[in-house]
Amino acid sequence: MNSLFTCLAGPMSFVLLLFAEHAMAKEPVCGRVLCGGRGVPGVVVTDGERFTQTDSHGAYRLVCGENAMHVYISVPAGYTVPVAESVPMFWIRVDTLAVREGIDFTLLREPDKGRRHRFVAMGDPQVRNRRELSQLDSLLAALKRTVAQLPASSEIPVLVAGDIVFNRPKMHLPSKKSFAVLGRPVFYAIGNHDHGPIRDSETPANEEPATRRFREHYGPTYYSFNRGRVHYIVLDNIRFRGGKRDAYDIGFGEEQLAWVERDLSYVPKKRAVVVLVHAPLQSRQFPDPEHYGDSSALLALLDGYARVQIISGHTHCNSVATPSRRVTEHTVGAACGGFWEGPVCLDGTPLGYKLFEVRGRRFRWRYVAAAAPERLFSVYPPDTSRCGASRPASELLVNVWDWDPQWRVEYSEDGGRTFRPMKRCGYDDPRALDPVACEYFGTAGSPRIAARPWIKARVTDHLFRCTPRSKRVTIRVVSRFGETRTQQVDL
Fold first, then answer.
1. Which residues pair with 46 in a beta bridge?
2. Terminal CA-CA length for the chain
3. CA count, 13 A, side-chain hemisphere, 410
4. 10 Å Cβ neighbour count for 489?
5. N or C: which terminal CB in the chain sees fewer CB atoms within 10 Å?
6. Separation of alpha carbons 26 and 35, rounded Å
7. Phi/psi zone of residue 462: left (φ > 0), alpha (ψ -120 to 50 degrees), beta?
8. DSSP track, 328-390
9. pTM of the complete model beyond 0.90
């Protein structure tokens, strides 16, 4: 009898456990959004699929989807949130909750409501080990010095455009601690090398996928927040397929696009929008829309907003695309440059970050080279090593890192009395390679890094050339915002 009861009780206990877990999944998550102990009304709450808003007392109630890992808020304008090891805590894990009531969020008041604010954008840190992390620390120290020189009118967050690590999930924790030195919130997008595969000896073979590890460290892979008159959206546009070649496609998928549509339903069209993703949504180098999957569907959802700034990384090059008057995409040079193998990105852009200033719905920006914060370009006199680029030895080259069509790049041979425009090299010119990038990384068919021969200098369309006849040349570069830099070159 006892044996029979035991046999029956085992399966029955399992069924009851499944029932309890199913009931917990259907049980709503309830709590409040508080600031100084008082409820904040109208705050958007989501689980990545479903939405609600807090009531007049700051209370919310949300029945989560079966696969929900987080419940999180879209931080309203005029507020910030506490930060833990650089990560803004606008999210709470719900898949591990024993109780689903009293799940509260804390907001902190932002004194000036963020109507005039700044933020920093950074491309792929992509660290593999402690050596590379120490190099990242040096870059972050330079960023900290840059931010310290700015007016302390409001908090200055950092937006990182994915590939936080290079297939090494164990590096997420030390990476977060490195970013924490900045003393400000860091909003992270997920990149293809954060999705997987896992490649480190400390990870068991049965470890959960790398994507889940990312979400455990940084929260949801798509979310939003607000500052002043700007709505910020962070998205995942890597559809990782895996395999021996770590295959992936660029795109968002129906579920994420549906979430964006619902998220934007709470945002008036008169607002500006900043979108942070990993892979570019468009570029001058690869204009074919097929290259970008369903990115056009996202752009359609953004149509009609006052201004749209898209921030991406992924290419390890720096570029600015302006497909329309209201939309600008900034593909920010990688923090790691050429995968921590040299002081520049694959297009010759120095290691650095991009600083944005926002006034209402208007944006200004400037790429900041960590080692030379005031510079906007590099100059290569004639006879500079071309490293297989086969350029004429008589050419003077200027690499204007953050160029777009509203910039002017000129040279003078009469002491600056008259200036002429320099000729821009296009993506169709296979010789449009930065000499320093060539020196460190080599070129296609002639790599410089034996252990990583796939790293090579890449063609850029922000390289300018002229063939001077005098022994002294003055270079003048004027940004789209009127910022002017000159440099005299003796030949």
1. 51, 72
2. 101
3. 17
4. 17
5. N
6. 29
7. alpha
8. EEEEPPPTTTTTTSSSB-TTSPBSEEEEEEEETTEEEEEEEETTBTT--EEEE-TT---TT--
9. yes
Distance of CA 352 to the CA centre of its chain: 13
Domains of the chain, first to last: 2-106 (2.60.40), 112-369 (3.60.21.10), 377-490 (2.60.40)
Give the whole-angstrom CA distance, residue 212 versus residue 195.
Answer: 8
Q: Sign of dihedral through CA atoms 460, 466, 472, 474?
A: negative
pLDDT tens readout for residues 278-337: 999 998 888 887 789 999 999 999 999 999 999 999 999 999 999 889 999 999 999 999
Residue 133, pLDDT above cutoff 70: yes
How many of the other CB atoms lie within 10 Å of CB of 261? 13
| 295-302 vs 254-264: helix crossing angle, rounded to 10 | 10
CA angle, 181 as apex, 177 and 182 as ends, to 5°?
125
> What is the 3-state secondary structure of 167-230?
CCHHHHHHHHHHHHCCCCCEEECCCHHHHCCCCCCCCCCCCCCHHHHHHHHHCCCCEEEEECCE
Segment holding 20, helix H or strand E: helix 2-26
- What's the confidence (pLDDT) of residue 15? 39
pLDDT tens-digit series, residues 438-489: 999 999 889 999 999 999 999 999 999 999 999 999 999 999 999 999 999 9
In the block, residue with structure tokens 């290569």:
380
pLDDT digits (tens, 9 = 90+) for 27-54: 899 999 999 999 999 999 999 999 999 9
Q: How many CB atoms lie within 10 A of CB 450?
A: 7
pLDDT at 389: 58
Q: Which long-range contacts (CB under 8 A, 24 or more apart) does 287-292 make?
A: 291/250, 292/250, 292/251
Between the alpha carbon of residue 13 and those of residues 2, 22, 96, 445, 471, the distances in Å are: 16, 14, 21, 64, 89
Q: Which class for 290: exposed (0-12), middle (13-18), buried (19 or more C-beta within 10 A)?
A: exposed
